[in-house]
Amino acid sequence: MSLQESKTWYWQGFPILYQSAGEMGPPIVFVHGFGACWQHWEKNISFLGKSCRCYALDLIGFGGSAKPEPKVEIEYNFETWAAQILDFIKQIVGEPVFLVGNSIGAIVVLQAAVQEPELCKAVAILNCSLRLLHERKRASLPWYRQIGASFLQKILSNKTIGHLFFAQLAKPQVIRNILKQAYHREESITDELVELLYSPSQDSGAADVFLAFTGYSQGPLAEDLIPLLKRPLIILWGDKDPWEPIELGRSLANYPIVEKFIPLENVGHCPQDEAPELVNPLLLEWVTNH
């Protein structure tokens, strides 16, 4: 099925872009990772939309959604994004949903499911952000990484330096090189994908959102939220992820609420886009079982 142009929903007065696919079946809401957008799920909602009602949206601050000023107009944290997802379910979907998230989007859907479990049927997370630079995790890092992370955050807190740093990152070739780290299958890195990530980086406020999140070392960890879940959870993990190593991710499977931990062979950080032929049948089976 081909998808039409993005739709717009206003949340707290700010425009939020989203897309839907499918008119019948159980509802699923997909949440992207850092710096991404709803289109990162296009290969999934076009497939699953044949038997489910699928929704994918841009978190505020990312993609085509508004990028209000950090701390002045909004706080960029997991509580804010979870509140956005919960209001989207209430106002757009209108009934409890299956929640699916990738990377930091995995933390967002966990937070949403913990906050209002009655709006959630079950949760699936893909290559969940382990937040290795969180203030509670830094002690386990080598000393030079602890110092390096703190130093970088301090330097980037200077707005002028931070904006210069972001300007160096927000270039198509740099984005392509970053994707080459994240994706194991290089053929999945298309010009269209690079443009999807590059275009929002040129929006007014994009640099401030980036800097606000890179300076955010607090908030919930997956291991804080999973024990609080009241809904079943499955975990999918690309085994070639250089950012969120599967060896560390496997520890999340130890909680009783986790039904399955499914390794995806020769797949990187964004399985939904890199290997939809593996992810889509697993998600369809998961929804059908619940």
Topology:
Elements: E1 7-11, E2 14-21, E3 27-31, H1 42-48, E4 53-57, H2 78-93, E5 97-102, H3 104-115, E6 120-126, H4 143-156, H5 159-169, H6 172-182, H7 191-201, H8 206-214, H9 222-225, E7 233-238, H10 246-249, E8 258-264, H11 271-274, H12 276-289
Parallel strand pairs: 3-4, 3-5, 5-6, 6-7, 7-8
Antiparallel strand pairs: 1-2, 2-4
Description:
With 290 residues, the chain is an alpha/beta fold. It has a domain at 7-132 and 219-289: Alpha/Beta hydrolase fold, catalytic domain (Rossmann fold). It is built from 12 helices and 8 strands. It has an 8-stranded mixed β-sheet, sandwiched between helices. The mean pLDDT is 93.
Using brief descriptors, characterize the structure shown.
about 290 residues; alpha/beta; Rossmann fold; 8-stranded mixed beta sheet; 8 strands; globular
- How are the strands of the biggest sheet laid out side by side? 1-2-4-3-5-6-7-8
Helix content: 40-55%
CATH topology of the domain at 7-132 and 219-289, by name, is Rossmann fold
C-alpha end-to-end distance: 25 Å
User: Poorly predicted ranges (pLDDT <50, ≥5 residues)?
Assistant: none
Main sheet specs: 8 strands, mixed
